[in-house]
Amino acid sequence: MSKTHRPAAAIISLLAGRGQTLALAESCTGGCLAHRLTNVPGASTIFLGGVVAYSNAAKMKFLGVRPATLRRHGAVSAATAREMAEGARKRFGADFAVAVTGVAGPGGGSKAKPVGTVFLAFAGASGVRVRRQFNPGTRGAFKRITTNQAWEMLRSRLAEPEAARRRGKP
Fold it and tell me: Which three-class secondary structure state does DSSP give residue 133?
């Protein structure tokens, strides 16, 4: 198995072993998460679907991002990533969802959100967590790094409940 498939394969194995499912909401990665996931045999056991919502209209229509959120915070924001993840989880009826929204470049950045800014969100039954990252570089590198960060965020969030159980915590 190639190095690029290992993180997705680990996620598939973990979720399949638990009988849990995943949905995706992508903007700046343009479907790279779904592409890498579906390149691994067995993806269909856990992956319910995804939405590539590049425009604000698509974020609202398909993921339920509120117009007020986009006006107040913009498409590249923690608030939008949160609503994208919640929307994907709800729309697909998945146990978990991951969302990414950012500025891949080379244009489109601002002083507050320069090219390379990305927000990653993880949604599950216990809520949504969002992380801001900065991944400057070429568009291709941005997408590859962001995808790897999304896999790592998902893997670490999925491992948390198991680690807590081993320590005897709820």
Answer: strand
- The CA–CA distances, whole Å, from 92 to 39, 47, 96, 101, 122 equal 20, 10, 10, 19, 15
Q: What percent of the chain has pLDDT over 70?
A: 91
Report which residue type is found at 150: A
Laid out side by side, the sheet with 47-52 consists of 47-52, 22-26, 96-102, 117-124, 127-134
User: Residue for token digits 């790897």?
Assistant: 148
Closest listed residue to residue 145, CA positions, set 115, 166, 125: 115
The DSSP secondary-structure symbol of 94 reads -
Could you tell me what percent of the chain has a pLDDT over 90? 82
Domains in the chain: ranges and CATH:
6-166 (3.90.950.20)
Q: How far separated are the first and last CA of the chain, in Å rounded?
A: 36
